What we know:
- With 813 residues, the chain is an alpha+beta fold.
- It is 17% helix and 36% strand.
- Strands 21-22-23-24-25-26-27-28 form an eight-stranded parallel barrel, surrounded by four helices. Strands 3-2-4-9-6-7 form a six-stranded antiparallel β-sheet, with no helix packed on it.
Amino acid sequence: MIRTSFNDGWQVRPKANPFAELSGHVVPFRPVTLPHDAMIEQQRAAPDGEVTMEGSAGAYFPGGVFEYRKTFAVPEEYRGRRIFVEFEGVYRDATVFINGDYAGQRPYGYSHFRVDADRFLRFGEDNEIRVEARAHRDSRWYTGAGIYRDTWLLVGEVVRIAPDGVRVTTPDVDDSRVVVEVATDVANDSIEVHTVDIVTEIRDGSGAVVASDHSRVTVLPGEPATARQRLYVPSPALWSPESPDLYDCHVALKGVDEEKVTFGIRTLQLDPERGLRLNGETVKLRGACVHHDNGILGAATYARAEERRVEILKNAGFNAIRISHQPMSKAMLAACDRIGMLVVDESFDMWTSGKSEFDYSLNFPEWWERDIEAMVAKDFNHPSVIMYSIGNEIPETGSPFGAAWGRRLAEKVRCLDPTRYVTNAVNGMLAVMSELGALQQQSLEQAAEDGAGINTLMADAGDAMNAVSSSELVTERTAESFAVLDVAGMNYAEARYALDRDLFPNRIILGTETFSTRIDGNWRLVKQYGHVIGDFTWTGWEYLGEVGIGRPQYVPEGGPQPAHNAPYPYLVAGCGDIDITGHRRPASYYREIVFGLRSEPYIAVRRPEQHGKTWAGSPWAWSDSISSWTWPGFEAEPVTVEVYSDADEVELIGNGNSFGRRPVGEEHRFRTEFEVVYVPGELVAVAYRDGVETGRTSLRWANGPVRLTAEADREVIRATGGDLAYVTLALTDADGTVHTAADRPVSVEVSGAGELIGFGSSDPSTQERLDATERRTYEGRAQVVLRPTAAGKIRLTATAPGCDPVDVVVTAE
């Protein structure tokens, strides 16, 4: 079918009451270009009274019902053809009307779906499509709202290749050749029998045809036919994260229709001794859990935004993404294929037991099969996808009926795609929540026998979760739910890794969700045990909502323990290795060292204003350190310097004076601390192994007048296809050192062939809007995102008090 972008020409407004409009109260529409997040434009507000889960979960953005409409012409020559409108994602409870008539719906906000449009269309005239979407107390994180992913118009003949109708597998791979099986679904909506010729070509990365086949298929009226072809590609280039080689499969119904899909050739194997093998080699998953939002863009899913996230995550040392907790976008899947990133794609955050008042559990019993089908159809040809997750922290997994649901979902996935593995991210504590009180009492009694008090037992929530997850109760209650899977996904349950090697010798484990603060110990376990295939940190990338769960906190004098969630105006969760602008935090460099991917030491400095206070952060919280040696106003004050390294020891040197050497490396959790007095200048860390220097790094204070700088991620971008330009604004000294303590408001103006679609910073707590033209920097930085509106030059001018204006020009081609 001919696939054309359907993103232009839309309008949006808050859903209006038609009876109110009859009395003259008309809510105006305004133009938008898709993808579009209607929620990110809403005014955040502080809730009345205490912090509530419903407010903090969605970052204090209000919900709402939003109405989109578009007028589009349908040529007379389209009469008699099949026409569909495809939506890659509408959040949530999407209802579609064409020319005023109901055309389709989709309750789940993360599934792609199509509406059969031709029956409602007026050919040779203008037509109107209208989409309603709503978001209201239906999630545990920021979801966004509206038509937040791409839309497409599909036009084809009555005999055609069905959408998602080309599926490529490689069942037999060796060094000399690979068998490529191509299954093509051919639809026939006519009243006649049709026999068509199918020509299939496999092309390598250079475009050269490396295999081809010609066959014939007869399609009966109203009865789709599947044509299967076996092709043989010599000397295949195998896909892997290190070498993401791709092939194109071109399928043509001669004279009728054609389709192209991209695929990769690779093998997967799994066993408890050698773990997960890719192309015959054991691979350990260095995983990042990632939410679907794009930071300052909200939930809007642009191809470049997804690609940029994958690039940054891979450069930070990750080789796998678990999308949490919903199916990954098509754009991110394509980026993972090109860049080389393994994917665990996840279906649901709930089944029949709701976690929010109006969540998908209300629709799950009726819709789950169609949503599983949509996820698998989307993923099938992507070599990056190695595993499907059928759920996340599903409370039902601790009951027989929940295990039956798990088997139902797992078998549905296997029926649709037997080439990949199935997991489920199980939280043992949630699985036995109804009996948690009795279990906790047993733990307290055991702790008393061991001489530990309740404060010792419950001092760390991670320890408590592990204690419950490794209990006999969880072992028994989750046995069947784990047995229906290929890989036992475990959230915050590393205490089971060694235990299950003996209890369940055939069980293969994946740490589907873990605390970033425990990566050193967790990674040691991953390397030690063959049956443990990887670790996925919560989270690799910062996200909107669940505000403040990973924020740095301290015990106030005489006050209560801080709350789990943060009050308004907190915006983000606070637990990402990489902040919402794509800037790597200290935890990211620490993880890279633990993975064995970085030899240079890394310096992070705790904020001196908190020095000496009692830490009270959650297990998701890293220290409040940043990579800066610029602390005006704290001269001669004590400060804690963290140094991360895999060497034997590190030396810290300030302005040429040594503060001594301290042991570091794996036996010391790859980190050490120096208590020093802050003196502006230069701080240097030198790593030694066996007394020989192996690397060094330094921090310099920002000295002298503040300059405003602007740098685009690329000078030339595409004018179409979801491309964007990311511009980093920074306050620096003359040498380029960032003035992390000189924040000020920055104003921007955009002219030419582009528009401003996002302006923000990594400030975790702010009342500033993300769609304004003025924004205060945070730790010396801010970020602008530009979208091209046509081919040509896009000019950004930025100004800040006390700084000379700066210009950046990006060319859209």
